[in-house]
Structure formats: C-alpha cells, structure tokens
C-alpha cells in the first residue's frame, strides 16, 4: 500500500513536469502531435509515465494509478492535443498542471499520514506475534 501511495506521488510530480515540457513544445515550436508525444516518450524525467510509450492518439484511454478524476483529466488533455489552436492548448495544459499540483499535494499528504500508520501497524503486529509465541 505504501508503494502504491509513493507511486501516486511520483506519477503526479512527473505529470506536472510533463506539463512544463508540453508548454515549451506548444509555445515555441509548431510540432505535430506525434512529435510531441515522441519527445515526451524520450524524456528521462518522465520515466514513471508508462502510458506514454503505448499511447494511441486515435483512441485515448489512459489508465494510471491515480484517482479516476485525475485519469479523466489526463484523457481529456491527451484527447485534445493537436485539435485546437496553440493558445487554447496552452490554457488547457496550464489548467491541467494546476489540477495536478493540487492532486500531488493531496497524494503527498496521504502518503505521509498513511506511511506512518502502516509502520506502526507493522511494529505492533510484530510485537503481538512475539507475545503470542512467548
């Protein structure tokens, strides 16, 4: 469970980084959608975003370990890449980035709270087993 919570924190942080790269690509170059996705796939700082390697632009259905609402926003973002003008895309990317910053804070807070709880359960569970065996 702690690993899953930590992975959520990593994925949300990398999605915020992905938005920065998308903003650069959309703002300063007139790349095609395929080139933008390829650039994201080759980016080392986005190594936990496995969906980028298998993304199908024609049929967007992205599933991550994040909450369903965050997955829906991610599908909306990639579903609209290349379908609107660059100004609208930059606004969409910025909105998604702000949402992911809030989600990342929520995931990190949950990780901090629950990781301590899981450690405490592990220690007390170990003590209970020791007492039973004695």
Polypeptide structure, described:
- The chain is mostly helical and 134 residues long.
- The chain has helices at residues 2-28, 33-42, 68-80, 86-133.
- 73% of the residues lie in helices and 0% in strands.
- It is elongated and about 70 Å long.
SSE order and pairing:
Layout: H1 2-28, H2 33-42, H3 68-80, H4 86-133
Strand runs, count: 0
List the secondary-structure elements in sequence, H or E: HHHH
- Low-pLDDT residue intervals, each spanning 5 or more residues: none
For the sheet with most strands, the description reads:
none
What is the average per-residue confidence, as pLDDT, rounded to a whole number? 82
* Rg measurement, Å: 19 Å
Number of continuous helical runs: 4
Rough shape? elongated
Rounded to the nearest angstrom, the distance between the terminal CA atoms is 30 Å
Strand content: under 5%
Helix % is over 70%
Structural class: mainly alpha
Quickly list its features:
single chain; 134 residues; 4 helices; elongated
Outline of this structure?
The chain has four helices and no strands. It is mainly alpha-helical and 134 residues long. Helix 1 (2-28) packs antiparallel against helix 4 (86-133) and helix 3 packs antiparallel against helix 4 (86-133).
């Amino acid at each position: 469970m702690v690993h899953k919570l930590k992975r959520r924190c990593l994925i949300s942080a990398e999605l915020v980084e992905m938005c920065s790269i998308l903003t650069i690509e959309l703002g300063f170059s007139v790349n095609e959608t395929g080139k933008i996705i390829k650039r994201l796939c080759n980016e080392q700082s986005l190594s936990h975003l496995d969906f980028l390697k298998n993304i199908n632009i024609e049929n967007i259905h992205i599933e991550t370990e994040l909450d369903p609402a965050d997955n829906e926003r991610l599908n909306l973002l990639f579903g609209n890449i290349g379908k609107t003008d660059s100004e609208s895309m930059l606004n969409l990317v910025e909105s998604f980035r702000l949402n992911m910053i809030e989600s990342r804070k929520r995931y990190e807070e949950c990780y901090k709270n629950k990781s301590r709880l899981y450690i405490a359960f592990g220690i007390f569970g170990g003590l209970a087993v020791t007492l039973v065996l004695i």
